[in-house]
Amino acid sequence: MLASDNGGDPSTPDAQRPHAVVAVVDARLSTYLDRALTADGYRVELAANVVDASEVPFAPDVVLLDGLLPLVQQLRARTDAPIVVLSSDAAVEARIAALDAGADEVVAAPFEPRELLAKLRALRRGRELATRRARHGTLSYADIHLDLDTREVTRGGRTVDLRYKGVELLACFMRHPERVLSRRELLEDVWGYDFLGDSNVIEVTVSHLRQALEAGGEPRLIFTVRPIGYILNARSDGRYSCKGK
């Protein structure tokens, strides 16, 4: 039995344990993840042959997949639960594709189990914090308006299509306008963990957010402040970078 990293007690009644779906084709990896997650306090459902979101056996608290990007997209449309893709493809393009599809994190194999479990706890903690801190009403900056109840975003009257993390990231910027936010601050506020690792999740999400906000030809409002992070500023006066991520 693997030791739990967070003191999770596998004897805890199922109703009180977080639910994890593991949809991994590799039988050995699936069994290993089952043992590790169970030891960390999860109720685990193995679903190696899942190809459609409707086949997920219960409303999960976290989902681990080994690919199948269409399934990632379907799941993201149905749940806000953290989705982690376990990938044997270390290429940046593959990781970006998974994040584009709606994954919260991409973990390249081989991976350190303790780090994976820590990331899962951090992702769940981030969701719980976001739920507790959710503010009703609206946020406005320049010509951007964000309704925190409906999660609808408009810019100059145009509807802006954003996924879950895009909305959370925009809300973070709008709560701290004209202030430089470090990558670490963004990770803590939006994703719920404070270590950077080798993930480019911030860069990808900022890129998507910019594209959505500028889709109607509007000027850039989110700028890169190297080497610190990013800033939401309608009065940049050319001080900040408009190139790259």
Question: Care to describe what's here?
Answer:
This protein has seven helices and twelve strands. By secondary structure, it is of the alpha/beta class. The protein has two domains: 119 residues, Response regulator (Rossmann fold); 99 residues, Orthogonal Bundle (Arc Repressor Mutant, subunit A), CATH 1.10.10.10. The strands form three sheets. It has a five-stranded parallel β-sheet with strand order 2-1-3-4-5, with helices on both faces. The longest helix has 21 residues. The chain starts with 18 loop residues before the first strand and ends in a 13-residue tail after the last strand.
Features:
5-stranded parallel β-sheet; disordered N terminus; elongated; 245 residues; Arc Repressor Mutant, subunit A
- Helix/strand-derived category reads alpha/beta
Low-confidence stretches: 1-8
Task: Please identify which CATH superfamily of the largest domain we are dealing with.
Answer: Response regulator
Shape: elongated
| CATH topology tier name of the largest domain | Rossmann fold
Number of helices: 7
CATH-scheme architecture of the largest domain: 3-Layer(aba) Sandwich
Tell me, rounded to a whole number, the average pLDDT: 81
Distance between the termini: 43 Å
Instruction: Assign the CATH class of the largest domain.
Output: Alpha Beta
Annotation, overall tally of beta strands: 12
Q: What can be said about the biggest beta sheet?
A: 5 strands, parallel
Helical amount among residues, as a percent range?
A: 25-40%
Overall number of structural domains: 2
